[in-house]
Each structure stands twice: as structure tokens, then as C-alpha cells.
Write a structure and sequence with these properties.
Bound molecules: adenosine-5'-triphosphate, magnesium ion
CATH architecture: 3-Layer(aba) Sandwich
Helix content: 40-55%
Strand order of the largest sheet: 5-8-2-1-11-13-14-12
CATH class: Alpha Beta
CATH superfamily: Acetylglutamate kinase-like
Number of strands: 14
Number of domains: 1
Order of helices and strands: HEHEHEEHEEEHEEEHEEHHEHE
Largest sheet: 8 strands, mixed
CATH topology: Carbamate kinase
Oligomer: single chain
């Protein structure tokens, strides 16, 4: 690429930079895309770039694969039902250690290394996430969100820092609960009035046929999304992801995107180009 191409690309991005400047974008960084070193650094650089051009990114992270590695070291078999982890007390200890200890700090460190400033918090800090056990009690210490106390995020965001949130909340009774990070991202997006919700994961987006990577659904509305869940076209980890988009859109978020975190600079492609990538769910 010569200098004039480089300058023209920068110039083309200007309208997007202007329209998103000062706006909040919630990014769910899926555990499924954290393993690749080069990609991980690219994601951190993209987040830093967004922050430096005036966008206000808020990160919510998962950590499924890393939790599974630590469970296996302790001879505990991971168990999922309906895309949610069945979480007994022993599993919860590991979930807490891995998410709030290892994964959160790795992301904070990775973003800070780029020159931006990230602050790691969990849903416990400042009572950010109040939760209750699932009504069905089917998954043990798994929670549904009852309230996001987004006030504690405001000063962090306003001072130019990037919040990095682990998806653990606490109940009224003071019991810590494991919450699917997709749900946290959706509710945080709604509560801070974010411009966009972007979920980075390990597939091209929502596929019509899970085995066919060419069957990407580029754009679907709420009704179609619900139908895909009913018909089991969307299952496993994609189910909470789609549900969180539906809830966020119902609460006034304009657009929710499920995109492939394995593509280098997926975030910039989504935010700063006309075509975008992955699946956009709109209201
Ligand atoms: N229709 C569908 N299209 C695409 N993926 C689907 C579909 N239905 C189910 N899936 C599954 O959903 C998975 C993505 O959810 P998963 O929970 O595994 O990742 P994640 O949320 O990014 O990671 P983490 O839960 O650790 O944060 C895909 O890898 C795929 O196996
Ligand atoms: Mg998931």
C-alpha cells in the first residue's frame, strides 16, 4: 500500500468516526475467540483505536474455553444445557477465579499495552450486576440479571477509560451467580444507552445451516430471530447470544451485530465500513 492509499483510507473513515464519536459501543468478547495470540492483539488494537478516535467502547467478556481447561485440571466435567453452563459450587469457584482473575486481567493488560487505558471490574464491583437464580433453578448457581447499576460505569467512561466487565453478579442474599456474558452485554448496552451492541464469536454470524459457513444470514429482524430459535436453527451458545440481541433491541438499542472474531480487524470492518460483516439483527 502506498502513502496516498493509506491517506485515502483514513479520509474515507472520517464520516464514520464523526458519527460514532462520543457514542458508546458495547463489545462482547467471546471466550471462543481469545485463544489466538495474533488475533487477540488485533482485537486489543482495534479497541484502542476506537477509544483514541473518540468512540467509547465498553467490553464484556466470556471465558468458556479457559474455564473448561481449569475444570478439567480438577477432574470436573463441564456441562451445558441450552447454551448455559450448569454451575455447582465447585464449578462456581473456578468460574470466579478464571473470569475475574485470569481472563479479565489478561484483557486489561492487553488493552493497556496498546496505550489505551482499561479498567477491569466484575458485576460485584459497585453492585454493577444484581442477579437472581434462574426461576427454573435448573442450572445451579446461574443467574438472570435483575438490575444493572450503570452509574458506576459513567465516571470510568467519561474519563476516557475502557471498562472491562466480568459476567458475575450477586443476589440480594449475597450469593455470587454465574451469568452468561452475552446477557450481560445486552443489558449493559441497554442501560448505558449504547449506540451498538457487537458480539464477537467464532462463527461468521448466524448461519442458516450450522455446518455450512456460506449460509450466513446477513440481516434478520426480531421476528425472524425468534423463529430461528423456535426452529432450533439457532441453538447452543448462539441461543443466549441471539436472545440478548432481541432483549437489547426491545429496549431501544438500534443495532446488534454478531460477527466473526477470527477475522482480523472484524470490529473496524463492522464499525467503519458500509457493508459491515456478520449478522445484523434489527428492530
Ligand atoms: N445457527 C447458528 N449459527 C452459528 N453458530 C451456531 C448456530 N447455532 C449454534 N451455534 C453455535 O454457537 C457457538 C457460539 O457460541 P459460544 O457460546 O460457543 O461462543 P462465545 O459466546 O463466543 O464464547 P463464550 O461463551 O466463551 O463467551 C458457535 O460456535 C456454534 O457452535
Ligand atoms: Mg457463549
Amino acid at each position: 500500500m502506498d502513502d496516498s492509499q493509506r491517506v485515502s483510507i483514513l479520509s474515507e473513515a472520517l464520516p464514520y468516526i464523526q458519527s460514532f464519536s462520543g457514542r458508546k459501543i458495547v463489545i462482547k468478547y467471546g471466550g471462543s475467540v481469545m485463544n489466538h495470540n495474533i488475533l487477540r492483539d488485533a482485537v486489543f488494537r482495534d479497541i484502542a483505536l476506537l477509544s483514541i478516535v473518540g468512540v467509547r467502547p465498553v467490553i464484556v467478556h466470556g471465558g468458556g474455553p479457559e474455564i473448561n481447561i481449569w475444570l478439567k485440571k480438577l477432574n470436573i466435567e463441564p456441562k451445558f444445557e441450552n447454551g448455559l453452563r450448569v454451575t455447582n459450587e465447585k464449578t462456581m469457584e473456578i468460574v470466579e477465579m478464571v473470569l475475574m482473575g485470569r481472563v479479565n486481567k489478561k484483557i486489561v493488560q492487553g488493552i493497556n499495552k496498546t496505550g489505551a487505558s482499561a479498567i477491569g471490574i466484575s458485576g460485584l464491583d459497585g453492585n454493577l450486576i444484581k442477579a437472581r437464580e434462574l426461576a427454573s433453578k435448573s442450572h445451579g448457581l446461574v443467574g438472570d440479571i435483575s438490575k444493572i447499576n450503570s452509574k458506576i460505569l459513567d465516571p470510568i467512561i467519561e474519563n476516557g477509560h475502557i471498562p472491562v466487565i466480568s459476567s458475575i453478579g450477586s443476589s440480594k442474599e449475597g450469593v455470587n451467580l454465574n451469568i452468561n456474558a452475552d446477557y450481560v452485554a445486552g443489558e449493559v448496552a441497554a442501560s448505558i444507552n449504547a449506540e451498538k451492541l457487537i458480539l464477537l464469536t467464532d462463527t461468521p454470524g448466524i448461519l442458516k445451516d450450522k455446518k455450512d459457513h456460506n449460509s450466513l444470514m446477513k440481516q434478520i429482524n426480531l421476528k425472524e430471530a425468534r423463529k430461528c430459535i423456535e426452529e432450533n436453527i439457532i441453538s447452543d451458545g448462539m441461543k443466549p447470544k441471539t436472545e440478548c440481541c432481541i432483549r437489547a433491541l426491545a429496549q431501544g438499542i438500534k443495532a446488534a451485530h454478531i460477527i466473526d472474531g477470527r477475522i482480523e480487524h472484524a470490529l473496524l470492518l463492522e464499525i467503519f465500513t458500509n457493508a459491515g460483516i456478520g449478522t445484523m439483527i434489527n428492530a
